[in-house]
Amino acid sequence: MSDIAHLTDSVRIFPHIQFDLKKHEYDLCIYRVGNSKEHLYMLKYVFKYPGIVMLQDASLTSLGEDLCTEENRTEMDYERSPDSAVDNHFFPKGIHSSKNPPCHLPIDSLNLSLNLIKEISNKNFMIIVTYEFLKRFLESAIGFSNVRFIPMSMPPAEMLLANNACIIRDLHLQNRVIVSVFEKIGRESRIEVLLHSLVKIVREYSIHTVHLVLAGPIEPGIRCEIEQFIHREQLENHITFTGSIPYHDMEKFYSISHICVNLCDFATSEIFAILDKALMHGIPVITSNIALYRGYPGNCVWKVDIDLNEIDTLTGFLIELVTNRELRAAMSANSIQYARKNLFSSDMLSDYVSAINQVIRYQKKYN
Predict the structure, then answer these.
(1) How many angstroms separate the Cα of 286 from the Cα of each of 217, 316, 317, 321?
(2) Same structural domain, 183 and 306
(3) Which residues pair with 286 in a beta bridge?
(4) Is the dihedral of CA 279, 331, 333, 161 positive or negative?
């Protein structure tokens, strides 16, 4: 709390609606844009006042769909923005309203996202990303050359080895291979695929050492379905529900996990964060073979195609990892090596200062 108090005492914070009047007080705009409606309000500034954009997500599909609504276009006064930001290929005018939700948009979601990112890039001086493969992707996909890769500065997460035995004992998971799904668990986590895979592993292959930990809250809409499935398939002894976990306690569940399953329907920063945190802890990861998850190396992250063979592929991967301690150890070492090389940086602060100074010099030269 003392750090936060110090920050609020030393940094001036104003409502964004005052920015038009205060713009002259600042040397540079820095935006952090993610794939969420919470970021929608800032887009009118992103298009109006060029600066540096920290791209939080690889896909901006949801943000673009929200932006397509007539309500949001009117509220954000896009008629004052460049025509390309309103009526171009990625912002179909009036394509739907609140009565016709974004999930029914008759447009290509990938093109929507790419073109939104391209438009943001064209209106700004620099894009900053925290993944090198995202940098390469943006350079090739949208042709924007001024993309800078600045890895995160978080130190490797503590493994909490001293607490492992106590946690495992309290959960009655001794002599089990623990497969974990972290954070909020919903349909986009493809949880039904994992549950059907678990049935095959236990029933068809008689591997009873496997135990699934759902480490986080489950969306209310599917909780009942999951419980009914578990009861019907008699999986009660192979699954643990934790419910909501305080942030500082989540480390404990990373520390006891042997495998992380991180399936997903679409790329989000939250899923990237879970995957990265697992790698920091040296946990082999199985994720979906979509979008930029393909950029992770195969020696620590295995990818499952979303197709008719998805359950069988996931089952094969899990059997191989659950039954092969040496393979898990090798993938764990690879995970930590990848995390140390790609997810940490002791120079993050100086890298950001360098990027900011570069853009400010450019502005002074050409303005």
Answers:
(1) 20, 11, 8, 10
(2) yes
(3) 261, 302
(4) positive
